[in-house]
Amino acid sequence: MVSVLLLIALLAAVFVGFNIGGSSTGVAWGPPVGARIVSKTAAAALMTFFVFLGGWTVGRNVIDTLGGDLVPRTVFSAEVSIVILGFIGLGMLLANLYGVPVSTSMTAVGAIAGLGLATGRLDFAVLGSIMVWWLIAPVVGFWFGAVIGRYFYPYLDQKFALEQSSGPLFTLDRSGIVPTPELGPGTTAREAVSTGLVLAIACYMSFSAGASNVANAVAPLVGGGLIGVDTAVVLGTVAIGLGAFTIARRTMESVGNDLTQLPLLAAAIVMTVAASITTVASALGIPMSLALSTVMCIVGLGWGRATRPTAVTGLVKGNVKGEISAGAVAAETGDEVPPVGQEDPENLRDVQRLFDPSSVVRFVAFWIIGPSLATALSYATFALLPIAGPV
């Protein structure tokens, strides 16, 4: 009976990891795949490798939090692990159906918190520290995006905006005894550096995804003593990699989480900020959502870019010219960058809005509803069913 429950628990973990790989790969590798910098197969391979690095190093801290700090390990059992992973999978299914980036990490915390409440073993101090980070992360993401968009983006656009040539990036010079790589026809040094930077950022995003998301798929199994941490990281990586090589091919095309509306430079900025916030939180053992920081950084970047025509005194008075739009982020910088407060608002107007208040409200609502619903369902389940371990 135990072996059957173990098999079901392992399959549940693989299902969760598979779906995580499908969604996270699109966020990390959608921009470079869309820009034809890397193929989908190569992106999936790099995603899998760096997810493993993130899970094997920083991700262990998150596994400890979800698998033993939030509630004691003794509360977990095979049945408990299956139910919790089921709630996480259900949360991901609802997110996909409604097209909103609900956090797997937040859903996992909610499900485990419900278990702790039902058994009277929830560590409220650990839960409080997690929730504080959930409040800080979107604010930090927004203001990093806002400052970069308002004061630095036009200059970064002049120096690092990717201008792709039609031919290959590199070729091999076979005239000598040993073939040597050289820039392809029409490829500039700037293009080569910018391309390498975009790839490095995507690898960094993959690392942060592994640091935060591997735990969501395997922490209940580790908490229940069903598998060890090393085995859990490998299992989670394989499951995420399976999703990266299969269902992520579609998400990489659509470049999920609204990054399709951003030029490659803006997407790289958003990815760097979101990945940094997630990695720092994961190092502290905090389950953190990539979607949380990503969406708010996009909003902040659009707001900062659109407010360049307005001086600081005008911002304080609320006199913001122009719209917060995709066009504001994607607007051409030109040969010269006007000072802040002197840029022409007409250069930043566009009919396609990036900051749609109704969309932001919908995202925030699901960030609240998702973990709250997981907590309530988990509490009701474990209060009614005596399947938790000894308390």
Structure characteristics:
391 residues, 14 helices, globular, mainly alpha
Please tell me about this protein's structure.
- This protein has 391 residues and is mostly helical.
- The protein has one domain (2-384).
- The chain has helices spanning 2-34, 40-56, 59-69, 78-98, 104-119, 124-160, 189-223, 229-245, 248-254, 264-283, 290-306, 312-317, 326-330, 357-384; strands spanning 170-173, 180-183.
- The chain has a two-stranded antiparallel ribbon with strand order 1-2.
- Strand 1 (170-173) and strand 2 (180-183) form a beta hairpin.
- Helix 1 (2-34) packs parallel to helix 9 and helix 4 crosses helix 7.
- The longest helix has 37 residues, at 124-160.
- The chain is globular and about 70 Å long.
- The relative contact order is 0.20.
